[in-house]
Design a protein that fits this description.
By secondary structure, this protein is mostly beta strands. It contains five helices and 49 strands.
């Protein structure tokens, strides 16, 4: 089996961090009809094929409620040449998927088969006509965001980069070369995980000119899409699946559903967008599947669907998990005769937690917040698909879970409500799909460290201390496939491999003590963590299995001394106060070079162009661009010597941007 996944990265780095750290991706199984094709590779000597579950996954972006894209096809490149193997072709019309909802969780696309063999790359084709990318601003974006909360960006203000063809058939081909070949075999589970990095500074570039000029948004798919290695499909967290039940197996062991998607933009009441993707889902015959009859407002635990023969024709929402053999097993199932009833279950990132009134507000796809009340009966689950019992067992019940910052802004959740018609909504269950803490790192020592996170809404701020997981806790594998135990961390910029083993903690402490000073403003290390619940190191709470030390974003600044000898100096107006200059180091070494982009706005057109600083032409371009007084935006890692090591540099030509861009 080969799982094809498309995902997005938290802040700038997280999904990529799991590649180096041996984390999971997402996947599905079952049968699909009408949406996959395959062709013979040059390496295949027989007509053997392997099953190909197709999934999209992603991670969060604080500024956007919807980043909608249409994936038209995914193809694999055979080693040594030969025809590309198409593993996914979208139905007509191609559905739009909101990447913002896919925070380290998988959106099931379908299933097919692919010839066994070795593949060295992939071609992802994205639809690029006006309206094929949808952007809606979040309910509470970052301070300085140039557009009002909840605004749906007009298609005329979205400029998709590097398109090919002519309307209405514009596309963007995204070619990927794998760091290591993908071997497809019938004897083992294979996984291809293609991930969107929504936090990549060059993915969505906003440009607001001085005065009353319109903010334009350049969307650049080339660069922010990459492959992540998936080592264990049982660790893949899947997004709740919506569908219409077509059959219940005669022996009750499974149901078969035709996948449905909610309409984008959302409608009221929400309507189902049917697909041709047919997926089989098993009941958990050992541990039991929790079954919720939304219409009758009842719940029970079943080990067979035999007692639910009336399911045929009903809408369902399913929380499922992979088994090692690639089959899908239902952890929980919600069923109703109305699609809106299973859909009205707020899904998104936690926007606010009011511990006084016991109300959690969930950010939705329309750029607004959905308040949900928590009471003494509300159950909290943490998705752990590799542990069937834990996946179906609540980690807490009641309002006390809110008081200790065990649920904070940025967690990705899916809430089920007692009555979808009630006002206010009352939470029956809260599925925590990812527990993401991030922010400034401080106080790192031998046992743990602190995250400090500040938002535009001050009541959402948090300061949380996380212990490292126990040194004996299994924590994926290293780049050679060897098991890893205990804490690990990854410098997202350099080097490219995770730091593991007995020195991981001490190296992490040393790596996070740097800072860069712009006058009175200090830039310190920034990181992100997907936390684990109830590790022995933090029984009854969250702990850190890993940290991605991410490039810290600086405000838009000005070059004060131009680029020379692989560095330049700049000022940054943090908080609106001009600061003294600091030095930015720029690596030009192949394999570890800074990512540099020229952003040009001329005659109402924004163009994002990558600059390869490992070449003489690239060095000439950056030297011409980074001159005294030029606007520049830098993402980098503070060093112990007071300099900033650049990861991404955006320099601007043509119409200058305003400081709020």
């Amino acid at each position: 089996m080969i799982s094809v996944t498309v995902r997005r990265i938290l802040s700038t780095a997280l999904v990529a961090s799991l590649t180096a750290c041996g984390g999971g991706g997402s996947g599905t199984t079952g049968s699909a009809t009408g949406n996959t094709q395959s062709s013979q590779t040059s390496q295949t000597t027989q007509s053997q094929t392997a099953s190909v579950p197709l999934v999209m996954t992603d991670a969060s972006s604080e500024d956007w409620a919807t980043i909608g894209v249409k994936i038209l096809s995914i193809a694999l490149t055979p080693q040594g040449g030969g025809a590309a193997v198409i593993v996914y072709t979208a139905p007509t019309p191609a559905p739009m998927v909101n990447l913002e909802q896919l925070d380290q969780i998988g959106e099931i696309l379908g299933n097919g088969s692919v010839p066994v063999g070795t593949y060295t790359g992939a071609l992802l084709t994205v639809s690029a006509n006006p309206g094929d990318v949808a952007l809606t601003v979040a309910a509470d974006p970052e301070t300085g965001f140039p557009v009002a909360p909840g605004t749906a960006i007009a298609s005329s203000a979205i400029q998709i980069q590097h398109t090919q063809g002519a309307a209405p058939n514009l596309t963007v081909p995204v070619n990927l070369t794998f760091d290591s070949p993908l071997v497809v075999s019938t004897s083992q589970s294979n996984a291809l995980d293609l991930e969107f990095d929504l936090g990549h500074p060059a993915f969505i570039v906003g440009h607001t000119p001085p005065g009353a000029g319109q903010t334009l948004w350049a969307v650049n798919f080339n660069g922010p899409v990459r492959r992540q290695v998936v080592n264990d499909i049982t660790h893949l967290v899947l997004r709740h699946l919506y569908g219409t039940v077509t059959t219940v197996a005669n022996d009750g062991s499974s149901i078969t559903v035709t996948k449905d998607l909610p309409a984008l933009p959302p409608t009221s009441p929400e309507t189902a967008v049917a697909t041709s993707q047919s997926i089989q889902i098993l009941a958990d015959s050992i541990n039991g599947t929790i079954f919720y009859d939304v219409d009758a407002k009842t719940s029970t635990t079943i080990k067979s669907f035999s007692s639910e023969s009336s399911l045929a024709g009903k809408y369902v929402r399913v929380a499922s998990r992979y088994q090692a053999d690639g089959t899908l097993v239902a952890v929980r199932v919600w069923a109703s005769s109305q699609f809106n009833s299973v859909w009205v279950s707020p899904e998104g990132h936690v926007l606010h937690v009011d511990k006084t009134s016991d109300v959690v507000t969930i950010a939705n796809e329309s750029g607004s917040g959905v308040p949900v009340t928590v009471n003494s009966n509300t159950q909290f689950f943490f998705r752990t698909p590799w542990n069937a019992v834990a996946d179906a067992t609540p980690i807490a019940t009641g309002t006390a879970f809110l008081t200790n910052q065990d649920l904070v802004r940025g967690f990705k959740v899916h809430v089920s409500v007692v009555d979808p018609l009630a006002t206010p909504l009352l939470a029956q269950t809260v599925d925590i799909e990812t527990a993401a803490y991030d922010g400034k790192i401080s106080g790192a020592n031998s046992t743990g460290f602190a995250y400090t996170r500040n938002f535009r809404t001050a009541s959402d701020d948090y300061n949380v201390t996380l212990n490292y997981i126990s040194a004996t806790t299994p924590n994926g594998v290293d780049s050679s496939g060897n098991p890893v135990t205990g804490f690990k961390w990854w410098d997202f910029t350099y080097p490219t491999l995770a730091t593991t083993g007995s020195d991981a903690v001490s190296d992490f402490v040393a790596a996070t003590n740097g800072s860069v000073t712009f006058g009175t403003n200090s830039v310190t290390a920034w990181g992100a963590t997907y936390a684990l619940w109830n590790d022995p190191a933090s029984a009854g709470g969250w702990s850190a299995p890993m940290v991605v030390v991410e490039p810290t974003p600086l405000p838009l600044g000005l070059v004060s001394a131009g680029f020379a000898n692989n560095s330049f100096t700049m000022t940054a107006a943090a908080g609106g106060t001009p600061d003294t200059a600091a030095t930015v180091d720029v690596s030009t070494t192949t394999g570890s070079a800074a990512l540099v982009y020229q952003v040009d706005r001329t005659n109402g057109v924004v163009t994002v162009s990558p600059i390869d600083v490992t070449t003489s032409a690239g060095l000439s371009a950056i030297t011409s661009g980074l001159v005294n007084g030029a606007p520049v935006k830098v993402y980098g890692v503070p060093q112990s010597d007071g300099t900033l090591k650049a990861y991404v540099i955006l320099y601007y030509t043509g119409d200058a941007p305003t400081p709020t861009t």
